[in-house]
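2024-03-11 09:14:02 INFO worker-7 job=invfold-0412 stage=load source=structure_tokens
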């Protein structure tokens, strides 16, 4: 399947169905990690460093820290993503142990970007997903992020709308946001 510049919900579903168990990552960790990127627009390094204390389930918000320890930004979570994260945290509690990190390997260590990239490339290969742009035939995990210029948030609401008919994102179904 040839991937355009915007991931549609059906593309994300095909990708998620191709996830398999690896020695370092269980399928639920990889699935939840990718859904988190797709559903919030978080950067890969922000998701890797995400702590349980950064998630506000009551208000459906995630607080993300910059890699350099700088400013934080708050992102809304849709109901589907919130429920997926809650289920993942419950099922992975034993492998996380006392760690405050959300996403960990099978042995309870922090995820590494190169491990994620290696597994993402394998998943894309299994799903026969490739891109028509860029220097690599395999899309990157950052490509899961919706274009930030295209999502407009209404204050006090977790409903998103696209920027208009001419934008390619207007065809996208951001089901993780609703």
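2024-03-11 09:14:09 INFO worker-7 stage=emit residues=178
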């Amino acid at each position: 399947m040839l991937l355009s510049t915007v991931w549609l919900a059906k593309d994300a579903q095909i990708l998620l169905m191709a996830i398999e168990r690896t020695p370092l990552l269980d399928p639920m960790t990889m699935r939840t990690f990718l859904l988190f990127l797709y559903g919030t627009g978080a950067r890969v390094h922000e998701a890797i460093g995400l702590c349980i204390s950064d998630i506000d389930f009551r208000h459906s918000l995630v607080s993300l820290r910059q890699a350099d320890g700088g400013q934080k930004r708050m992102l809304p979570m849709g109901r589907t993503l919130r429920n997926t994260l809650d289920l993942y945290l419950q099922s992975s509690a034993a492998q996380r142990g006392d760690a405050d990190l959300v996403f960990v390997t099978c042995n309870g260590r922090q995820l590494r970007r190169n491990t994620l990239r290696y597994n993402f490339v394998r998943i894309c290969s299994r799903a026969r997903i490739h891109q028509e742009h860029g220097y690599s035939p395999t899309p990157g995990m950052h490509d899961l992020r919706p274009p930030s210029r295209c999502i407009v948030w209404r204050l006090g609401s977790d409903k998103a709308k696209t920027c208009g008919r001419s934008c390619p994102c207007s065809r996208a179904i951001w089901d993780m946001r609703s």
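2024-03-11 09:14:09 INFO worker-7 stage=report msg="The first helix runs from residue 9 to 17."
2024-03-11 09:14:10 INFO worker-7 job finished
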